[in-house]
Amino acid sequence: MAGIIDLIGNTPLVEIQKLNTNPNVQIFAKLEGNNPGGSVKDRAALNMVKSAIERGDIKPGMRLIEATSGNTGIALAMIARLFDLEIELIMPANSTKERTLTMEAFGAKVILLEDIEKCRDYADEKGASGDYFLLNQFANPDNYLAHYKTTGPEIWRDTEHRVTHFVSSMGTTGSIMGTSMFLKEQNQNIQIVGCQPTEGSSIPGIRRWPKAYLPKIFDASRVDRIIDVSEEDATLMARKLAKTEGIFAGMSSGGACHAALQLAAELESGVIVFIACDRGDRYLSSDLFG
């Protein structure tokens, strides 16, 4: 019998069959919305909390705190309760209501501030006070190591070692850093492609960070190429994924798919895997599918 934690990971690869027009390239979406908390962030949340407990950094009765744009917060709210830990989550005020309600359903305290940078500053200040344990996904190696341990090996296994390109949205950059580490160890020729918003675009889950807030876990040498994606392209592709491929995912997944399709159009042959970060039901109160 499996507990909820045992259901994190081993998400399916689903081939993009209609949107891909290059018959010599296969594109697969890794459906991270199939994780019990509904997103790729379940992996990092579990590894950050479990590893800190094993090291003795988190002790019984400690309160956790974290700044999040949504998915990490939901995952941490779920994981914290499984380990009987209280957690406070700091989130931008423009986050969808579904995210706040889901975190609160798991028992988390949620504070809304102006933007993610202010959320990070607030969490850093509270963590430094000694009253909270700050997980700090932006600088915590256990974030990307979750993907080194799980996401990378799953992609390598499930493509039967044929993957040639890996595409991921870049937020905290944990997914792309850890998966790159593993895949490059298997085959240095695998291309790692990140996507970020064009200047002025706002895409939940993907960021173009100001230099002062660039995640400390990010190592530019682990990314071979960055593709900029506009808010409009990410939105349209999220809608197309639902209506054409039956994949109900969020805007960051639309952005990653857009980048994967752009890449496929340039290739003579290949096997592309992109991360479909979460489920579309996180965005129903927004105009994403309106």
Automatic annotation (TrEMBL):
Catalytic activity: O-acetyl-L-serine + hydrogen sulfide = L-cysteine + acetate
The protein's annotated pathway: Amino-acid biosynthesis; L-cysteine biosynthesis; L-cysteine from L-serine: step 2/2
The enzyme's E.C. designation: 2.5.1.47
UniProt xrefs under PROSITE patterns: CYS_SYNTHASE
Residue ranges of domain Tryptophan synthase beta chain-like PALP in the record: 6-278
Pfam families linked: PALP (PF00291)
SUPFAM superfamilies per record: Tryptophan synthase beta subunit-like PLP-dependent enzymes
Cofactors: pyridoxal 5'-phosphate
Residues bearing the modification N6-(pyridoxal phosphate)lysine: K41
Coiled coil region boundaries: none
Superkingdom, natural source: Bacteria
Family designation: Belongs to the cysteine synthase/cystathionine beta-synthase family.
UniProt xrefs under PANTHER family: CYSTATHIONINE BETA-SYNTHASE
Stated name of the protein: Cysteine synthase
Originating gene: cysM
